[in-house]
Amino acid sequence: MGKQVLGLTPLPLAFSIVFFFFFFVLFPSVSSDEASKTFIFRVDSQSKPSVFPTHYHWYTSEFAEQTRILHVYDTVFHGFSALLTRQQVASISHHPSVLAVFEDRRHQLHTTRSPQFLGLRNQRGLWSESDYGSDVIIGVFDTGVWPERRSFSDLNLGPIPRRWKGACETGVGFSAKNCNRKLIGARFFSKGHEAGAASGPLNPINDTVEYRSPRDADGHGTHTASTAAGRYAFRANMSGYAPGIAKGVAPKARLAVYKVCWKNSGCFDSDILAAFDAAVNDGVDVISISIGGGDGIASPYYLDPIAIGSYGAVSRGVFVASSAGNDGPSGMSVTNLAPWLTTVGAGTIDRDFPAQVILGDRRKLSGVSLYAGAALSGKMYQLVYPGKSGILGDSLCMENSLDPNQVKGKIVICDRGSSPRVAKGLVVKKAGGVGMILANGISNGEGLVGDAHLLPACAVGANEGDAIKKYISTSANPTATLDFKGTILGIKPAPVIASFSARGPNGLNPQILKPDLIAPGVNILAGWTDAVGPTGLDSDTRRTEFNILSGTSMACPHVSGAAALLKSAHPDWSPAAIRSAMMTTATVLDNRNQLMTDEATGNSSTPYDFGAGHLNLGRAMDPGLVYDITNNDYVNFLCGIGYGPKVIQVITRAPASCPVRKPLPENLNYPSFVAMFPVSSKGMASKTFIRSVTNVGPANSVYRVSVEAPASGVTVTVKPSRLVFSEAVKKRSYVVTVTGDTRSLKMGQSGAVFGSLTWTDGKHVVRSPIVVTQIEPL
Question: Residue limits of the Inhibitor I9 domain (predicted)?
Answer without folding.
Answer: 43-110
